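Dear Dr. L.,

I hope this message finds you well. Following up on our conversation about the binding site, I have prepared a predicted three-dimensional model of the protein together with alpha-D-glucopyranose. For your records, I am including the exact sequence and ligand specification that went into the calculation, followed by the structure tokens. Please feel free to forward this to your student if that is useful.
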Amino acid sequence: MKNTPPLKIMFIASEAAPYAKSGGLGDVVGALPLFLQKMKLDVRIALPNYSGVSEKAEKLSGKKVEQLNIVPSVEMGINGTSRFGVLRTCLPDSTVPVYLIDHQYYFNRKGLYGEIPDAEYGDNGERFLFFSKSVFSLCKEINFQPDIIHAHDWHTGPVAMFLNHYRTYDSFFKSTKSLFTIHNMQYQGNFPAETFSLTGLGNHSFSEQNGEHFGSFNFLKSGIRNASRVNTVSEGYAREICTPQFGYGLDRELLLRGNTFSGIRNGIDSQEWDPEHDKLIPFNFDSANLAGKANNKTALQKKFNLPVDPKIPLFGIVTRLAEQKGIDVLASALPEMLKWEMQFVLLGTGESWAEKYFPVLADRMPEKCSVKIGYDEPTAHLIEAGCDFYIMPSRFEPCGLNQMYSLRYGTVPIVRATGGLDDSVENFNEAQGTGTGFKFTDLTKDALINTVGWALYTWYNAFEEYSAMQKRGMALDNSWPNSAAKYLQLYRAALEDV
Ligand code: ADP
Ligand code: GLC
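The resulting structure of the complex is given below.
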């Protein structure tokens, strides 16, 4: 049999766990390539060399990151030529290459997108335009001729536009196709028209096709218009963002893509998030033996200074404190919810009102509620492992990973029926003995309170139903291989396009 060469895929993204992560984008870019490689694809990742990334890579691999002996450059329109360096490492315990785009001025800063989680650097348009363009000189310098460039979210929206431009005259990219994955429609990278002059494509090219949107340069629109294929991270969200309610002004753009736009639900990294082997939690466990889970609950109650009591149901959330996550609704519902016999823990960072509100509430009700403002992975794992219920009242949710981590850790999710939450959690049906969590539809304080009340009722009056639901959740397989196979199909479909 003739050996066909492996498909060559270049990922380009602004986050990849464990090096740089502010949310689920990092989890996905740090995991999906591992599974594509298992399917024999030659997959590589381009990531900005943010401050601290190379040190982290060295610590994880126990080796020095390799400084490549190349000096690629990018034409930044009126700003002229920008040279950069490239460092090379591999995703932990793998041979998936990660190329760190090393530009001191753009990336050696305190934050990924701003100094604090809620702020943006004033030159983010320029920074990510540079990054989007850098992938082309990178590919040429390392002589990697990709079949597909797989770009993620607004930061790399312009990649497909540049590709379509280069393809017209540069034979190196003649057969390269692109996939643009939207992880969130709300963040579009909308910059003043002047930013377009940095593309080097000439102001005459500033058209809707290239991302012009009501006079601004919209990176997301540029990706949607130009990529060979576009997808988002669940089927439910793919349907929702074709409507004005969820499309943030770009729903029509997606409708116009017809069947070249689709949804593929994220998987979870079942090695990183595995209650049986998780190194970040004090007690490992599985569905056949939940004693470890009970010990984690005690550890969590102690860590959060709550009364240690196995019988009180413990609810938790780990989240960006952002409007998307419905934290305003949670904030208004909590004082009433907490009148019941329950405990609640929160870990998060984000909007400044929320960073103040939740700790004040915890101070008022220290027996029931405890909050940590910060970004802390071991605590995130302990919350997944030690809680009895996980709350996710999202206003919208492209996929959501925490509800899937919760299912795996026997922590019954309570979710709003939207996007990926609706797709991944099946509502409890006591009569039929089915379901993996509790769902509500209206994003109101009352709907959330009633659903938490329903969960509490089940815990106190039908504990065997709760336990059965917990086991059904733990038995689900939400790991990456299924979804990775769908990405492979999508790459193949893109390559067949003329
Ligand atoms: P989003 O990407 O919209 O924030 P996801 O559910 O897809 O939502 O992914 C969030 C990821 O970020 C999860 O891995 C979650 O555990 C992690 N995370 C969010 N906030 C924190 C935090 N404060 N500390 C540790 N991990 C966090
Ligand atoms: C985004 C979405 C989240 C999704 C993640 C990974 O940050 O908000 O729902 O799970 O991307 O795709």
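In brief: The chain has a mean pLDDT of 96.

With kind regards,
A. P.
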